[in-house]
Structure formats: C-alpha cells, structure tokens
Write a structure and sequence with these properties.
The protein is built from 15 helices and 11 strands. By secondary structure, the protein is an alpha+beta fold.
C-alpha cells in the first residue's frame, strides 16, 4: 500500500491511497464466504458455491463492492497512522480507481486535530470577588432557617399577606370552564407569587367561605397564554408563625446550645461557600484568559456537528423533560432564533477550544492520572448522576467511557497548573492563594466539563 497526505487547511487533510490488488485477497475471500452464506444455487450445497459460479450468477462487481467495503477501514487506518495525523470524526471517502486484478485507489478527506502552540501563560492575571461575609448575610441565612421551622395555625379572620390559605379555583375562557381549569384544596401562601397573577389581591381580605373573581393570563395548560376569568374560593385561613430568634430556637434547629454559636457556624459555612465560589470563579476566568491567549484553528465539520448536537440535546432532552418547545424556551429567555444560534456557536467553539488547548497542555506538561484521582472523579460523577458508584462504574466500562473520564481529570489537572501559575487578586487588591485547596483538580475538572458541555442545560433550568 502507498499513501500520501495533502494538507487542505490547518484542520483538514486529504489522504490519497493506492492498494495493490493482491492486498485485497483476504477481503475478497471474506466477500465470497459472506455471499455464499446468503444465496442458494441449484446443484450446490449452501456455503459450497464456487467463486466462478458466484461471479457468473451474481456478478464480479457485487463481490468487489463487498470486498472493498470490508477493506477500506483497514487501509484508511494504516494511511492515518503512516501520515501521523489525529482524525476527528468520520472521513469522506471517494474511490477514484478500481481495476479488477490490478489496483484499488481512493481518497479520504477528514478533519484533524490542529497543531497548537501553547505560549507562556505565567503572565495571566485575573480579578475575582473578595470573600466577605456581612452581618446581613448571617441574618438572611438564619432567617431562612427560621422559615424552615415555621408552623401554621387556623385563624378566624380575613386573610392577609404571609397567611396560608386553602383555596378552590375555577378558570373560564370565553365563558367555558376549561377541562384542566378546576382545582380544589390548593394550599397557597399569599405574596409568594407562585400561582396566577392577580390572585394575591383577590384573596387578601377574604375570610373562610369568601370568594372573588379576577382576570389573569394563564401560564400553562390547555389555554396557555389566554386571558381567563378565574373564580377563587377561600376554604381556610392559617397564620404562619416562625419561632422566636433565641437560644431555644438554636437548640431546636441545630446542634448548638446558643444563638451566638448558631450564627458563628453560619458565618463559617458562608465563608467556606464563598471561598469555593471564589476558587471556581478564578478557574473559569483563568480558562477564559488562556483561551484568549492561544490561537486555535477551528475544524468546520466538527464545529457544525457540535452545534447540531447541542441544539438536539437541548430541544429533545432537556426541554422535552420540562414540557417546553424550543420556541417557548426562547420566548421565556427573551431571545431570538438568531441570538440563540450565535450563543450556541460561541459555546460550541469554547468547548472545542477548551479540549484542544488543555489536551495539548496535558502532553506538554507530561501530566498523568493516578488510579486514586480517577476513582475520586468517578465517585463525584456517580453522586451527581444519582447512581451508586458501582452502577456508574459499570455503565462507564460497558459504554467504553473510561478514557473519557481519564481525559476529564487530565484536563482538570492541566487547568490547575495554569491557575497556580496565574496571578489572582480579589476586588480589594489582595492576592488570592489557591494552592491550599485540596480539591483543586476535581473542582477544575468540573469547570472544564461545564465549558466543554456548554451552558444550554443551565439556561434551560
């Protein structure tokens, strides 16, 4: 076999391959054997039909076609290895010559992983939010805890904001009650904004047994988007009561004996969360700076496929589970189809660039992934998927995804290397030291994964 490679552009090559006919012998034998098992000829046992008879009855062309289809992947792979290129996706193959008994010639055009030069990244400087927990933050946290321990008790008075009312609803459009427009025994907190527009004003001031009618645009159901005449009847009114903010509450809601200890713990937890958020922000901004620093030729076919995949996943999986169409999703997001297309393309480009750059860094820095690091990553991925570690590990192995997980960890390590080399300061001008973060690599892997997968899922939520 002879092969040559022609560079069409930085991300695409054409391989030209010539195969002497004798190298097709194994594939020809396999083709005759396969056809033997598929056809019957009077006078011959199944599987024992001579080659000359097959040629006469079914045509030599059918045999050659079967043999070439069988042989092409092997010769293409040999040509790729000989050319030392890294193909992306499936090639476009064109058989240029097929002379029976003499020669098979074909070309294969395919996108390739571009050559990338990683410049000095030690000069990257980024700014992140300062870690600052205010008294207001503490009060908000404690208040949220109080709300979780709130109780309700029936009252014989008019409903007011903050009360929990039990209501019956009936919605009509054009004077007709909607098939899905009746609900009974609905619990609603006045002022929460969780039901229809206008309901707060309608029920405020009503006692048990009282009812009111108002007009509201329906947010879902069979008449979504239409104005409906809604009748609401209050069947019960209950007042919400939150516990007093004292040591007794601290003992009720936590393992602490005093309110001061509870607040001190809240401060520690908020500081830890903000430090985590700060580290994540640093990794995201360092990654963005690195992408800006490196020139990455973009394979057009790979980009097109990635855009289509993201749109398909969003429309048929994420939005489908939420009962939304793409048009409705864009309406809720306040985006045009053109804006959505541009954002999806930008996300796809970022994901591809992230993989290319960090994979090159893995090779340049000679980074490897230990079994311990892979196991930790697998445990985290299993937890986020809702599967047990054993179930997730089995699914990964059966799906041939082990190397994908290894790649995720390796890219996380590459990003961690760049973060450590970068200068990170907060909005107060203080230098931020992230070197003590024990989970830095795993956190970086999650940042990389988010960049590679894009933000469509997050937006859908």
């Amino acid at each position: 076999m002879k092969s040559a490679v022609e560079t069409l552009n930085p991300t695409r090559v054409r391989l030209t391959v010539e195969v002497p006919f004798e190298e097709l012998k194994d594939s020809l034998d396999a083709a005759y054997k396969k056809i033997n098992q598929q056809v019957t000829v009077k006078g011959f046992r199944k599987g024992k039909i001579p080659a000359r008879v097959i040629d006469q009855r079914f045509g030599r062309g059918a045999v050659l076609e079967e043999a070439v289809n069988d042989a092409l992947p092997k010769f293409y792979t040999e040509a790729v290895n000989e050319a030392e290129v890294n193909p992306l996706g499936q090639p476009e193959v064109d058989i240029t010559e097929l002379k029976d008994g003499e020669l098979l010639a074909f070309t294969a055009e395919v996108d390739i992983r571009p050559t990338i030069e990683i410049p000095d990244y030690s000069g990257i400087e980024i700014t992140v939010d300062a870690v600052e927990v205010t008294d207001e933050d503490i009060e908000k946290s404690v208040e949220q805890l109080r709300e979780r321990f709130a109780s309700t008790s029936p009252v014989e008075r008019a409903a007011a904001e903050g009360d929990v009312v039990t209501i019956d609803l009936e919605a009509k459009v054009d004077g007709e009650v909607l098939p899905d427009g009746v609900a009974e025994g609905v619990s609603y907190t006045i002022g929460s904004g969780e039901l229809l527009d206008g309901i707060d004003e309608a029920v405020t001031g009503l006692e048990a047994g009282g009812e009111a009618t108002f007009t509201s645009q329906l947010k879902g159901g069979s008449a979504e988007g239409k104005d409906a005449e809604v009748t609401v009847k209050v069947t019960a009114v209950a007042a919400r009561e939150v516990p007093a903010l004292d040591d007794d509450f601290a003992q009720l809601a936590s393992e602490f004996d005093t309110l001061d200890e509870l607040k001190a713990d809240a401060r520690t937890r908020l500081e830890n969360q903000k430090q985590f958020d700060q580290a994540t922000q640093a990794q995201e901004r360092v990654l963005d700076a690195l992408i800006e620093l490196v020139e990455v030729p973009m394979p057009e076919k790979l980009l097109e496929d990635e855009i289509n995949t993201r749109k398909h996943n969003l429309e048929h999986h994420q939005l489908g589970q939420m009962g939304l169409t793409l048009d409705k999703f864009l309406e809720l997001q306040g985006k045009t189809a053109e804006e959505f297309q541009a954002e999806t393309e930008a996300q796809a480009q970022k994901g591809i660039k992230t993989q290319f750059i960090l994979d090159e860094l893995v090779a340049k820095e000679k980074l490897s992934v230990s079994q311990e690091e892979l196991t930790e990553h697998l445990l985290r991925r299993a937890a986020s998927s809702g599967m047990s570690p054993d179930q997730f590990a089995q699914a990964v192995v059966e799906g041939g995804q082990v190397q994908m997980l290894v790649g995720e960890v390796a890219r996380g390590k590459a990003l961690a290397v760049v973060v450590e080399a970068a200068k990170v300061v907060d909005t107060k001008g203080e230098v931020v030291d992230l070197s003590d973060d024990e989970d830095e690599v795993e956190e970086a892997a999650e940042v990389v994964e988010a960049a590679v997968d894009g933000d469509a899922e997050a937006e859908a939520k």
